[in-house]
Amino acid sequence: MNVRRRRISGIAVTAATALGLGTLSACSSDSSAAGNTDKFDVVASFYPMEYLAEQIGGDHVNVTTLTEPGQEPHDLELSAKQTAQMGEADAVLYLKSLQPAVDEAIAQSDVKTKIDAASLTKLEDHGNVEHDHDHGGEEHADEHAEEEHSEGGEHALDPHVWLDPVKYAEIAQGVADSFEKADPDHADDYRKNAEALAKKLSGLDTAYKEGLAKTDSKVFFTNHAAFGYLAERYGLTQEAINGLDPESEPSPARIKELQEEAKADGVTTVFYETLVSDKTAKTLAKDAGLKTDVLDPLEGITDKSKGEDYVGVMEANLKALETALGAK
Hints:
This protein is α/β, with parallel strands linked by helices and about 325 residues long. Helix content is about 40%, strand content about 10%. Strands 2-1-3-4 form a four-stranded parallel sheet, sandwiched between helices. The protein has a four-stranded parallel sheet with strand order 6-5-7-8, with helices on both faces.
């Protein structure tokens, strides 16, 4: 992930015509672009925000998303049409620091209701997120980078809060409050929908607590440092193959280090994800004599996802962790 903010050039914003109005319409819950319906029009930045908007908004909202299914969200570039479309929406729901192009567009937009999910819960510094997610290199860091750093530290705050059901529930409540304020005519329904979603997320939290309470190992390997909040919540340790582009291979030194840790901590599996290459994970697994499996960071739903929605994929992730960690 590119947690460091990249400069988004005007050329990049205007050139990506393939992601224009047609894309927004195709991703809409009722095939209507934002600003063109009688419903409360919400533009969501990527899937976890889209899911919240749909679950809380129900029949009263028309949701469009800026990130196509299967598209890696961190490197999203916006077209001029998408940027203009955002300004016509009633609300925009995003997670600041995850998608620099979206942050920039929202800052320049005059949309009335701007809901930053990152402001609805507490972000934490998990140590290696910035290093792991710097696809572009030093030259892409800009003057905003310092805003994303924790005080006195050198790492960016981890934005992957949606993978912790408890924090995701906190965000959901904040989204519901914003919807109620912006569209008071349907406040009661938004509140009821939020309560129903809270029950689903509470059920997930309970399932994770019980499923991961007793395991042979507490350490898991992943090629994407997306699971820091989840690991912290359920007493696990995430070990990412840090300092690597998703398409590159781990260094011999890193392979040796992880081989030793795998033996010491009883690690059996290297996890990879659905939206990026599995080359790194398979290289490590082969050299270290480990298995591979999918642990989905839920940045988008595709035909390859092991579930039809957030809850379904989180349940699949739990099963994968239980198997890899030797749950009893």
